[in-house]
What does this fold into?
Amino acid sequence: MNFFALFVVAASLASIQADVISHDQVIPFAQSAATSITNTVALKFKPQIFINNGCHPYPAVNGNGDTSGGLKPSGSESAGCKGSGYGSQVYGRSTWYNNVWAIMYSWYFPKDNPVTGMGHRHDWEHVVVWIDNPAMENPTILAVTPSAHSGYSTVLNE
It folds into this structure.
């Protein structure tokens, strides 16, 4: 066995470790241009969120792989997280599921602090938008499934 080669590989892997940085220093990725049908549909149906109270979404990871350190669940619901000066980030994935096209959009929140003194560092919330077929000229929303701490609930488009 070549121990020198093994040492070089191990040292290289150790040197590329990403850092944990302050939640308000994570710079989001620029939104890429839609280069496929699925990208176009994902951008078309991307939900907008409104934060009445509580923490606003922030980017979770930057281009260097550095991740947000989040926030301790202290102070008011929105203390320290009323929005990033760099902008937010929406993460998305899509696939076929039971003959329906599912697009999952995800937002990262540095903390979840619904009641003063209670909560946790880091939170992810999701919305799944169910459509009939992304290849159709005018795809139709069949249902929307938002997440919450108690799980998911689906609202059908009837």
Remarks:
- The chain has one domain: 19-156.
- Residues 100 and 132 are 6 Å apart (CA to CA).
